[in-house]
Amino acid sequence: MTAESLEIHLASRPVGWPTAENFALVRVPVPTPGPGQVLVRNQLISVDPYMRGRMNDAKSYVPPFEVGAVLEGGAIGAVVASEADGIAPGDLVLHGKGWREYAVVDAASARVLDPELAPVSAYLGPLGGNGLTAYAGLLEVAAMKPGETVFVSAAAGSVGSLAGQIAKLKGAARVVGSAGSAAKVERLLALGFDAAFDYHDGPIRESLRTAAPDGIDVYFDNVGGDHLEAAIGALRTFGRAALCGAIAQYNATEPTPAPRNLAAVITKRLTLRGFIVTDHAALSGQFLREMSGWLRAGELRYDETFVDGLENTPDAFLGVLRGENLGKMLVRV
Ligand code: NDP
Q1: Does ligand 1 lie within 6 Å of residue 136's CB atom?
Q2: Of the four, 111, 133, 168, 206, which is 20 to 30 A from 278 by CA?
Q3: Residues spanned by the domain of 198
Q4: Is the pTM here over 0.70, yes or no?
Q5: Are 307 and 173 in a shared domain?
């Protein structure tokens, strides 16, 4: 009997919030690796907000997912068969074929991990793309300098919690975070944020004014919408915003309102700069050295939220969009 593997396909394109009907759990034969490939049994799968954009049939910086095909994204698994030099059965590898139990991966796109260096899940969080996003967005895109005041939105999430802590480690005078619950606010203060607020508690503009009465120099934007408008209002002359994500609008079915105060960008000479992490790959070496050092020294902490079972991957993905995660959302297969 052929061994089987479970995988999650995109059954249809969501309109607005994805629902269970947009996903299908499909049984397929376990694939066979060809020359230069390895067969991996996935252990951890990353679910990320950007995947919502790939579910639309729209031109973007990555091609859309195909309807009827398996979804994909970051994952870590153990090699069970290898047709590639340099990768052996038992090796743990980081690769891009998530949303499935077994994956055939080109050796060239698999990175062998050393579990002695760090818990491997960290390679999907602080030591991976999320870490580089926070690092590059803050230090290269927003060019944060010591002594500045920084505001981070979705601050209890994976990228946000790292961005806020990196800001402190790099000498920010004050770091403010916003998040979606009192428990998350408490966690931000425990992670070393100087102030934090629940954005449901009142107009963001007012909460931000209370948390940063003298204004902000840098805004790390994960949310867009009202958050961006409030930040533009709070930014001081020559302030900078790194536009990383706009999660408030990923499920919108109508065009979302733009910040109404864009004229302040002129009068205050602000810089609002969007970025995609892959444009900053040249920083990888420096980032990994610094981030590993902070983690080893216990100077930077990261949270993880686990959902168990491959079949629950769509729920885990929806959970990230709904804010059910503290830190990085991962599926344990
Ligand atoms: P997170 O771990 O931060 O999870 C997303 C969080 O967004 C949720 O936990 C939720 O927390 C918050 N959220 C959801 N809806 C809203 C809303 N309407 N208003 C305010 N907050 C909301 O995800 P990531 O760390 O993976 O990603 C963070 C952001 O960075 C995303 O926008 C993502 O698209 C972007 N990103 C961009 C990259 C780039 O290259 N530019 C690379 C990687 C990520 P809460 O409970 O606080 O609402």
Answers
A1: no
A2: 168
A3: 129-278
A4: yes
A5: no
